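Entry 14. Ran structure prediction on the chain below.
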Amino acid sequence: MPSDYFELMLRTLHLTPEERELIVEKRKKQCICDMCPTYKACTVKEKAKGAGSGTGAGGAPAEGESEWVLKGESAFCTLGKSACIEGEVECLCSTCPLSREMGLNYSYYCTRGSETQQKIRDVIGVR
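Output, C-alpha cells:
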C-alpha cells in the first residue's frame, strides 16, 4: 500500500482512461458528499433557481431519486472543486469512509480542490 494518497495518485498516471473511469465511479458510490451541509447549501440554491437535475415535475427529483444532485458532482476528494459550491458551511470529509480508506488528510474538497491539488498548493506555498 502506498504511504499516502499522493503516491497512490501518482500510480494512477499509468492507468487507461477506462480504468480511471471505473475508479471514479467506485468512489462516487462510496461518497457521502450529498449528506454534507456545504453540499446541501448549493442544492438549495439550485432548487431555488429551478435548476434541479431531477426529471420529475418542475425539475423535482423523479420517483426513486432520493436527493438533488449537483449535475452529477461528487467525490470532490478525487475530482476537485465543485462548479456550484461557493461557500463553506460545515465539512464531513473526515467522516467519509472513502476519505478514511484512502488516508486523506485535507478537507473541504468541494471548495478547496482534491487531495492532490491541496497537497501541491501546500508544497509550493500557494493558498
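The helical segments are 5-11, 17-30, 37-48, 76-79, 97-102, 109-112, 115-124. Will compare against last week's run tomorrow.
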